[in-house]
Protein: aminopyrimidine aminohydrolase
Amino acid sequence: MGPTFYFIKSIGTHSISFSSKLYKQVRFGRSNNREQRKEKMQAKKTREEVEKINMIDTWLKKHSLIYVGATRHPFILSIRDGTVNLTSFKTWLGQDYIFVRAFVSFVASVLIKAWKESDDSGGDMEVLLGGMAALNDEIQWFKNEASKWGVQLSDIVPQKANKDYCRFLESLMSSEVKYTVAITAFWAIEAVYQQSFAHCLEDGTNTPSDLQVTCQRWGNDGFGQYCHSLKQIVNRRLAKALDDEIKKAEVALLDVLEHEVEFWNMSDGGA
Ligand SMILES: Cc1ncc(CN)c(N)n1
Structure:
């Protein structure tokens, strides 16, 4: 569309018309126009800065479909409404035990990256060490639950989705992968479980009583606080990161969400 022309004045038989741009310049003055542009640019910059301060929430809004897919999966919803198939639950339990063992090595690699790359102004090492300690308990918890449910852990063969996920973790352990990217993935992995299982503990849910302990494991307030601390570390790192690193971190987040969906799918006989 061409510029809008404003009729301004008739002088004798001559009429003078201006383009809208010129009109604004005449009407409000040149400097005013520049002021407006400056204000607009400042507003855009502020918006970008705010987004960068809380990059995670910006991404979760942008990728809400896959995020909801990972945190409100039919397996989780079946626990929440009490219709869960116990064979599915036992499949998940056995597969997750294998995953968590690989996950420990991944977290150790994140700890090494933190030591090498972080200024540790946010106490990253303490948060990560707390996470390692929680994983130690988690492994013991899986052993206890497996014996309670009659799942023989030594017989479990990792399924394709589990192997793919563990391979992905291994790729993140490479020294080529930056701390910011690895900790983004780490936060996302923990956050999906926290959000999923906390959903099963909300008021009015029908979660079976013998599955409450499982939901409490990741849905409790302490685990929620730990995920919040991880999120703050990630947001602080992303606010200072270069564009290339930010892009890689966003891709890592999406990869985690896809792997989590595939992981839940396994419980229902998926690959
Ligand atoms: C697949 C998966 N994702 C996350 C978590 C939580 N540590 C877990 N145990 N398993």
